[in-house]
Amino acid sequence: MLEVSAIKKRYGTKTVVDTVSFTVGTSECLGVIGPNGAGKTTLFNMLDGTARMDGGRILLDGQDISDAPQHARARQGLGRAYQVPRTFVGLSVYENVLAGVTHGPGLRGAAAAARTMEILETVGLDAKAALIAGGLPLMDRKRLELAKAMSVGTKVILLDEIAGGLTEGEVHALIEIVARLKQDHTILWIEHIAHALMAVADRIMVLHFGEKLIEGPPAEVMDSAIVHEIYLGIAVDDTADT
Amino acid sequence: MMPNRHARAALLGDYLPGVAICGALLAGLIWLPSDNRLPMEILLVFAMAQGWNLLSGYAGLLSFGHQVFIGIGAYSLFMSMNAFGLPLPLALGVAGLVTMATAAVMALFLHRMRDAYFSIGIWVMADCVRLLIGQWDWVGSSRGVMLESSKLDLTHFADMVFWLAIGLAVVVQFGVFILLRSRFGLGLMATRDNDVAAASVGIGASRSKVTALILSALICGLGGAVYYLSILYADPSGAFDLSWQIKILFIVIIGGVGTLEGPILGTALYFVLQQAFQDNGEMFLLLQGLTAIVVMVFAPQGIWGVIAQRTGLQIFPTRRRPPGPSLAARRPKPTTEDKAQAARAPAKG
């Protein structure tokens, strides 16, 4: 359960995220949408501790993590997949995930190895476990990014545009993975591919210029006048793609 | 957890090649030369190079200021024996502690710096310390300091220093090897590759780097202490000389930065060059520069880096192998239900 109240982020005089609040329970998925520059990734940066907040509070299972450093939040079970994969390029695929499994939930020895292989099987990288991650093509790096988020995200998983660039079949496989993760996780998912979000999200939140415009059931939000207004043009392109 | 027989065999297999090669090299250094002055220097320079490699190759912090730790190690050994009359073993301990403390203080200023800022930052600090020592009367200012050798057993002195150097080199090589195979080592290498991503998977990235800096300093401090112990005299322009750093840099870059085998190869190459052109200093410097250019152009990852890349050979294996296919094959194919259960299980963490 993630409770976020009135968090803010300013860069200089510009407020990038302005007093945003929401709550996401376990076994729930909140989709986050909004045009480019709406503050979606900045929101995630504040949630996982990549960036400091300029106000507000974050509770993870009732515990205040607002001031906890990034690595401490990861150890409390918060995992995050970055939009641009941040791969440990000098390590093998296996070691990329093992690093999370041993430092986050703190598994050791055979248990850590088994959990790592299980995650790699889930994202479809088990056959490439021994390869050096720096040599992976982009799509595999995105899979690995999801695997890294899963390696520490025992409670909360933040997904930042992990479906971008996947083929339709791959998007379906991804939806299946996220749906399965949702059974016992709190999930936040930023995604431009609307039908992927519609399939998994229980609610959708719309950010626009750092402000939360609307939050509600996916169908209702997507049909709302306000979303049509800010997405005019963009939404048409998306449907054309899919 | 008790390692089973299979794991123990694998562990032995991981250590055997390294132990064999180090044993052979040591035997050569011990038995072949008539005089152990040169072997001692080789071993100490190697240890320092490996210490620098721990920080620069595995933590990704390229230091240009490691001469400060060599000098501090030497001076704290000398002063704790001269001024406080400590016996040698204790003085070596003090030298190690003082060097670590120096590194910890420097880390206060350096821990947020990265890339070139770190490299230049540590270089400037190292030079400040050199200048300060040169002004400080208690440590002999620019004249330097002689070790009061009255308490030393000078009959077996050369042998004793030689064995100290052997001990240091062996402990450093296998100590760093064990460290890199540990959870800390994995976290350190992840931090090197991407510190934000490392923190996002629960690694205390800043702390890992500071720990690596302190351990790296300790190694160079002890190396400096033993080296200057052998010549009984240290002065600021020698012990804090940038040429120490250049020597170390050359060795590790040529051999292969971020590999445990590289510094061994680099040290060997450096001393072969040095001995071959013993009477022709200019030729030695010229060839040293030429070697550096050739290696950096054709094999930027160093000689061992190329060998490892081409052959996959590892004498000191630090990679964690995924559980073998035999293990996976033995496991029954998971049913959909099992998979759902497995997905649910980690929530307990």
TrEMBL record, chain A:
InterPro entries recorded: AAA+_ATPase, ABC_AA/LPS_Transport, ABC_transporter-like_ATP-bd, P-loop_NTPase
Source superkingdom: Bacteria
GO terms, molecular function: ATP binding; ATP hydrolysis activity; L-isoleucine transmembrane transporter activity; L-phenylalanine transmembrane transporter activity; L-valine transmembrane transporter activity
Keyword Nucleotide-binding annotated: yes
One of the protein's GO biological processes: D-alanine transmembrane transport
SMART domains assigned: AAA
Keyword Flavoprotein in annotation: no
Cellular compartments per GO CC: plasma membrane
Domain ABC transporter: start-end pairs: 2-234
Keywords (A to Z) from UniProt: ATP-binding, Nucleotide-binding, Transport
Protein name, UniProt field: ABC transporter ATP-binding protein
Organism of origin: Thioclava dalianensis
From TrEMBL, chain B:
Annotated GO MF terms: branched-chain amino acid transmembrane transporter activity
CDD domains, sorted: TM_PBP1_LivM_like
InterPro entries named in the record: ABC_transp_permease (IPR001851), LivM-like (IPR043428)
Localization annotation: Cell membrane
Chain segments carrying region Disordered: 318-349
Keywords noted in UniProt: Cell membrane, Membrane, Transmembrane, Transmembrane helix
Transmembrane segments: 12-32, 90-110, 117-136, 160-180, 212-234, 246-273, 285-307
Single GO cellular component term: plasma membrane
Pfam families with a match to the protein in the record: BPD_transp_2
PANTHER family attached to this UniProt entry: ABC TRANSPORTER ATP-BINDING PROTEIN, HIGH-AFFINITY BRANCHED-CHAIN AMINO ACID TRANSPORT SYSTEM PERMEASE
Identification of the protein by name: ABC transporter permease
Organism: Thioclava dalianensis
